[in-house]
Amino acid sequence: MSTTLTVAVVQHAMGPDREANLGLAADAIASAAGSGARLVVLPELQSSEYFCKYQDPELFGLAEPLDGPTRQALARAAQDHGVVVVGGIFEQRMPGMAHNTAIVLEADGSLAGIYRKMHIPDDPGYNEKFYFTPGDLGFEPIDTSVGRLGVLVCWDQWYPEAARLMALAGAELLIYPTAIGADPQDDREEQQRQLDAWRTIQRAHAIANGLPVLACNRVGHEPDRSGAGRDALFWGHSFIAGPQGEMLAEADSSAVVLVADIDLARSESVRRIWPFFRDRRVDAYQDLTRRFRG
Amino acid sequence: MSTTLTVAVVQHAMGPDREANLGLAADAIASAAGSGARLVVLPELQSSEYFCKYQDPELFGLAEPLDGPTRQALARAAQDHGVVVVGGIFEQRMPGMAHNTAIVLEADGSLAGIYRKMHIPDDPGYNEKFYFTPGDLGFEPIDTSVGRLGVLVCWDQWYPEAARLMALAGAELLIYPTAIGADPQDDREEQQRQLDAWRTIQRAHAIANGLPVLACNRVGHEPDRSGAGRDALFWGHSFIAGPQGEMLAEADSSAVVLVADIDLARSESVRRIWPFFRDRRVDAYQDLTRRFRG
C-alpha cells in the first residue's frame, strides 16, 4: 500500500460576494483533484472577506448554521471530486453566539468533523474577540479517509500546546487554515521578520511532533469598508512541510493551488531517530495549565 | 538606563584533558569580556569530550561534585572578568547518581544557581540515559545580575514545554548549552535537514515566548575511544536570536566566540503586538501532562 498522500492548499483572494468566493473554492478543489490531491485545504473563512477589521454588530449577519450554504457548497465539491476538504465557516450557534469553525468534509460529501477555533486573537485590524466565542471542543483530531487530521485555525498556529495535544491524540497531519497579513505601517524589515516567524513556528510544530504541517493563507488586499478600521494585506506564503519541518512546497503572495506529495511513512522514521515523545517530563509539566508562574 | 545587553556564546572543541579544556574556556571568557560581553555561555559539559558515545562505568570517574574543579575554574574566570558565566558539569550527587547540570556563576564568582537537565536522550552515539539521572529541579529560571535566565540543556531544546515553563516563570533569555552533531552515515541532505530543524525549533521558542534565545554548541570531530561506539562530529552553528526568532548572530562550524547586542526592551514590544500569553487556553491544556491521549 502506498504511503504517499497528495495534498493541496488553496491560496486565493476573497471578495464581498459569498457565491463568488464559494465558486472560486469549488474551482480550486476541482483543480487540486485534477492534480491528484486527495486532501484539499482552504484558507480560514474562505466564504467572505476577512470581516474582523472593525467591530460592527451587523456583520453577525454573515454567520450561518453548520448546515448552511457554505457547508453545502463544499460538500458538493468534495463529493463531485472525491476529495477530503478542509474549509471554514462563521458558525451561528445561537443568537449571540458565533464561532470561527473549521469543517472537514469527507470525499462522499458527509461531515467528518468540526473544530472550533480555541485561541482567539484581538489586535488592531483583527477584532476577533468581538465576533468569535472561544471554541469548546478542545483539541481533538478528526478522522477521515486520508488520515487523522489535526485541524487548527490561524492564531492557534502560535501555540505549541495546541500542536502537541493534537499529536498526542494521534494526529497524522497538522493543518492550519489562516488569514494573516502585514501591517502596511510596518517597515519592510519588520514585515519580513513577521512572515519568517510565522513560517518558523509552524515548521517547528512539525519538528516537535514529527508530522507534516499544511498552512493555508489567503492573499490579496482587502479594503476596510468602515472607513474607521484598517485595510488588510494578506501575505500568502502557504506551505507544506514534512516531519522535520523541511519545506515540500511553498507559495509566494499570488493566488495558487499548491500541491505536494507527502510520504506518510517518514513520520515514523523521523520519530525513531528523534523520539521526543518518549522523553517528555509529564511529571513536571503541570504548570502549563497555569496562567502565570508568579 | 540602557536596555542593551552584550552576550557571548563560546563555540569550541574539547579534547581529553580537563585542564586544557578549562583553560580554553577561561581564555574564551576573557575574550568575550574584552568584546564587552556581560554574559558568557559555554557549550554543554565543556570540561570534557562528549563521553556518552558508548557505555562504560569507568567514565563515571569524570563526574565531580558541585563545588569541584570545573566550578572553581569557571568561578575564577567569572570573577576575574566580571561576567556572568553559564557552564556545565557532570555532577556527582552521590555514588550511583550523576546529573548533567548547568551551573550559573555570578560576576563576583558566586553561584547564582543550577539547572539539572530534565529531558535525557538516548540514541546511538548519545547514551545519556546510562550516565545521567533525570533532573529533579523542574524548570526554574535563575536570577542573575544580567537578568532572569531560562537555562536548559541540549535535548531540552526540542521541547516547547520546557521553554514555555521558563517563560511563564519570568525568564528573560532562553539559554541552551548543547552538544549536537551529524551522523556521518547520513547523506548531506539529511544532515542539512537536521541542522535546519535544530535551528528552527529553537528560534520557534523565541517566537512562541517573545524572548531572545542563545544556543551554544561545541565543534570538532571527537573519536570514539572504545572502538565499539561511534565517532562524533559536532556541527557548531551556535546562534543568538531575538524575540521574533530573528538571527542576531550565527556561527558556522569553526571555533569562535560569537558576540551580539540584545535589546532587552524588544521583548516587551514584541509581546505587545503578539500577546500570545494573554490567549493561552489554560482551561484546555490539562492533557499536556499525559503520556498519550489514547
Structure, briefly:
Chain A is an alpha/beta fold. Chain A contains six helices and 15 strands.
Task: Please give a handful of descriptors for the protein shown.
homodimer; alpha/beta; Nitrilase/N-carbamoyl-D-aminoacid amidohydrolase; 6-stranded mixed β-sheet; 6 helices; 25% helix
Instruction: Note the total helix count of chain A.
Output: 6
Q: What do we call the CATH homologous superfamily of chain A?
A: Carbon-nitrogen hydrolase
The beta-strand count of chain A equals 15
Number of domains of chain A: 1
The major beta sheet of chain A can be summarized as: 6 strands, mixed
Q: What is the rounded distance between the termini of chain A?
A: 53 Å
Give the mean pLDDT of chain A.
Answer: 97
CATH class placement of chain A: Alpha Beta
Derived structural class of chain A: alpha/beta
Shape of chain A: globular
User: Which stretches of chain A are poorly predicted, pLDDT < 50 over at least 5 residues?
Assistant: none
Strand order, main sheet of chain A: write it out. Answer: 5-4-3-2-1-15
Radius of gyration of chain A: 18 Å
Assembly type of the chains comes to homodimer
